[in-house]
Every structure is written in C-alpha cells, then in structure tokens.
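I am writing to request your help with a piece of structural work I have in hand. Here, with my thanks, is the record as I have it:
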Amino acid sequence: MSRSPIPARTRLIEAGERLFAERGIDGVSLREISREAGSRNVMALQHHFKDRDGLLNAILDKHLVRVEQRRHVLLDAAEASGEPTLPALAAALVDPWAQCLVDDDGGRRYLQIFVELVNRPRPVLPPSLGDDVGSLERWRALVDPLLTPEQRRLHRRYAAMLYVTTELARWARSANAPDLPLVSASLTDLVVAMLSAPVSAATAAALESHR
C-alpha cells in the first residue's frame, strides 16, 4: 500500500478536527484519531503532540493566524477613524470568526471545537501570537471606554463573545450553506444590542447588592 503524500502531522490534525467536531472533545480516543489519520504507528500522535491538549493546541494554532490577522485589520480600521464605534468593533468581533464558515480547510470544525473549549468550566481562550497582543484582548480594550461601569461588571464583552461563537458553531453544524453577509450582519447587530443595552433598575439594584 502506497503511503499518503500528506505529512503524518497534517493528517492527524485533520483527523482530530473531524472527530472532535463530530463527537466532542472528550468523546474520541487518541487511538481512534490515529486510526482515522491512517497511521500505522499507534504512537504517532504522542510523538507529534504528546497528548490531547497538544493536538487541540495544534488545531487552534492552524486557524488562529488567519482569525487574528482578520480581526487586527478591522481593529486598525476602527482606530483609524479616530473614535471607534460599537458597530465597527462589533463587526471586528464577528467577521473573523464568521469567515470560518466558508473556510474549506476545517473552518466549520474549528468553530465547533472552539465553542466547546470556551464553554468549559475553565475556558480555553486563544493566546496571542508570540509577543503580540491578542486580537480579543485588543478588542476588549477598545470596547471598554464605550461601556458603563455596570455594563463592564456584567461582563457584557465576554457574553457577546460567547453568543457569537455559539451561534456560529450552530451554523457550522448545519447542513445548509450559510448566507455569510446576512449571518455576519445580523450577529453584528445583536452584539451592538448586547453591549449597549441599558442596565435596568432591577439589574442595577441586584448588582449593587452583589457588591
């Protein structure tokens, strides 16, 4: 049997993406991933990634560069205007992830894996690239002055991120082809609404009591 021209490491990442997206991160054994990748060496995965977390980090890294680059470009444009607006910043949150819906190199699977990671008891968030500030950290800093102290204390920014990734993962699981401009624009509107919604008197009172 001829050997695949695709490097073993790449085949293992692609197999991990498929199985993690289909069955969940904890629903797949490393041995199953090795078999799916067509590896005859049962220790190949451990050799390349050491363990499950190493493979997950490789999957995240595969997509992180593109997502980070897209978001930084949008944040650069928002800052160039002089006064970044919530709609511009909301689009900078949504669009880089939404583009994964039309990324044929595992983009849809990445969204499903990523949302499972960020919804864990100990969320796994994408790191920055090298010594650079991560795009989500930069986004949070630009949104911060546009929120009231109460909105910040209610973790509106994190809630918006969770909503966007959850909704995009739902689209990623759908058999229907997404209308990307509509999905992106609609989610951007909802992020603006989430971030800017007034804090009600009842919520403010509960927040003060929580203090």
User: Anything to note?
Assistant: The two ends are 67 Å apart (CA to CA). Residues 63-210 form one domain. The CA atoms of residues 93 and 136 lie 8 Å apart. The chain has two domains: 1-50, 63-210.
